[in-house]
TrEMBL record:
Assigned protein family: Belongs to the binding-protein-dependent transport system permease family.
InterPro entries listed in its UniProt record: MetI-like, MetI-like_sf
Keywords for this protein: Cell membrane, Membrane, Transmembrane, Transmembrane helix, Transport
Protein name: Carbohydrate ABC transporter permease
Origin organism lineage: Bacteria, Bacillati, Actinomycetota, Actinomycetes, Micrococcales
Protein localization: Cell membrane
Regions that span the bilayer: 12-33, 80-104, 111-132, 138-161, 198-220, 247-265
Record domain ABC transmembrane type-1: where: 76-265
Membrane topology, record value: Multi-pass membrane protein
Amino acid sequence: MNAHARPLSRAILTALAVMISLAFLAPVLWLLASTFRSATETFASSSPLSWHVLWPQEWTLDNLRSAVDSGFLTALGNSLVVAAATVALGLLVSSAAAFALAVIPFRGRGAVFTVVVLSFLIPFEAIAIPLSRTVSDWGLANTLIALILPGLGNGLAVFTLRQFFLGIPRSLSEAAHLDGAGWFRIYRSIYLPLTRPALIGAGLILFLFQWQAYLWPILITSTQAMDLAPVAIAKSFGAFSTDYGRVFAETAILAVIPAVILLALQRYFVTSVASTGSKE
């Protein structure tokens, strides 16, 4: 390819990338615009299609006020508490399990890892109903503990951390053993400090699992005070009428929070996926 063709090729590829990005962003922009448009304008601009679909003719905060007045902030707070607790406790459980599977030699380690892999290949919906019966029998229905428990043992998070742990030179743990360090000290003082990107990546996996949870909260809770944000949005739809402006506002709030977190931590998430393999 000659020197004149390269800039043209780059410009075409850039334009194509921008068009594809806009195609993916269009529904998101429509959602955000619908949050600030009046109820009468919500669907009026989509037939016939016009640029007002992405830019309201009249801006209003009524939809956000309606979401606040409906008690959505309580459900959003529940989601934040459940997601934060899941990330904190889930990272402890997942990192300890990953360390054992990657570093500590024991009989049957390969079989245990196979079970971990199978656990995140099986859809959670397949086990949600019998699991909810078990949790209810324990007397934990309508509690934050019941909402948090399923997210603690996330197989994908364990897998991600184990792959990262395998890339840490074994010579470090062997040298620590010679100095008299036990497994817990090696885990705490050597492996955890070296796995910050992987821990952030696993934390994002745990956060997203809980943030978008819908079936499990419905099965394990029955009071409005324990509703999570996705459940509260579903309850906004009435049998005969629905305030779509309020639904758009609640959905936008629910979507913006993880989007901001992912954009802020995306480089750590990419590093956690890329940084596998031996570093000897």
